[in-house]
Amino acid sequence: MSAENKKSRGLGRGLSALLGDDIDDTPQLETGGAEKDKKVAVTNMHPGKYQPRHGFNEDDLKDLANSIREKGVLQPLLVRPHPGIDGAFEIIAGERRWRAAQLAQVHELPVIIRDFDDKETLEVALIENLQRQDLSPIEEAQGYQRLRDEFSHTQEVLADVLGKSRPHVANMLRLLSLPESVKDMLDDGRLSAGHARALLGAEDPAGVAVDVVKKGLNVRQTEALVKSGRGGGGKGAGKGKGKIKDADTLALERDLTNQLGLKVEVRDKKGKGQLIINYENLEQLDGILARLMRGGE
């Protein structure tokens, strides 16, 4: 655990130095094959295969292109020698700047070259993107999940590396338990992360989400709608009315949901009941089973 913390914290500081204002003050960047102030032709760079973004907003790219025309590229791109094309480079961090530079008709870009393997490339690409502010809530949550599943990072380590609070990481992971239709609304901006967190407590989150969007409800109004048990066009509306869970049961559900990153329900009746773990796909089910097996060992 401590070794993992040290490794992750070192990586986080390295990213900050590589991509922020502290490049000249970070001794470790002078080792390990890093090159500063080198320029590479735009045509000699290729998008990274581990890019976690779903897409790039065209208007944002145009705005960035205008900025590049006026001021140039202020931050170097992070690249590695392309594993499949001799003499070319694969972009680890900075694809958005690369795309905008092409719109601005800039032919060369400043880069920092690192000799990362595939695992390091994926980890750095994920963390660099998660430190940006323009990801959709689902893109952010999926980034956390990949770091957790593929690199065995705990929520505490993720929070430390990314400068987030542990509750924030846990709450974002919970969004992945929502129905696909709700995730689509999050991705295209019809719903905010606050709306989504409120919907986690709904019997029919997909139906309630449609009501929220149709009526233009804010987060507090959504919370009130979910709490009242109304909404959702009938399915699940009022379901369970009169069966209000006590504070201890709700706290247990919340803690289990935070730990697993999946919605957990506890149904208790006079000391007997069910523990229900909701998953959206087989990958999530495999993750639960793997954790149970490790616990058994």
Descriptive notes:
The chain is of the alpha/beta class. It has three domains: 14-131, Alpha-Beta Complex (Conserved hypothetical protein from pyrococcus furiosus pfu- 392566-001, ParB domain), CATH 3.90.1530.30; 180-244, no CATH class; 245-297, no CATH class. Helices cover 51% and strands 11% of the residues. It has helices at 2-19, 58-71, 95-103, 118-130, 137-151, 155-162, 166-174, 180-187, 193-199, 205-215, 219-228, 247-260, 282-296, and strands at residues 38-41, 45-46, 77-81, 89-93, 108-113, 264-269, 272-277. The protein has a five-stranded mixed beta sheet. α6 (155-162) crosses α7 (166-174), α7 (166-174) crosses α12 (247-260) and α9 runs parallel beside α11. The protein is globular, with a radius of gyration of 22 Å. The two termini are 18 Å apart.
The general outline is: globular
Unreliable spans: 1-35, 233-242
How many beta strands in the DSSP annotation?
7
Oligomeric state, counting identical vs distinct chains = single chain
Identify the CATH class of the largest domain. Answer: Alpha Beta
Architecture per CATH nomenclature, i.e. the level-2 architecture of the largest domain: Alpha-Beta Complex
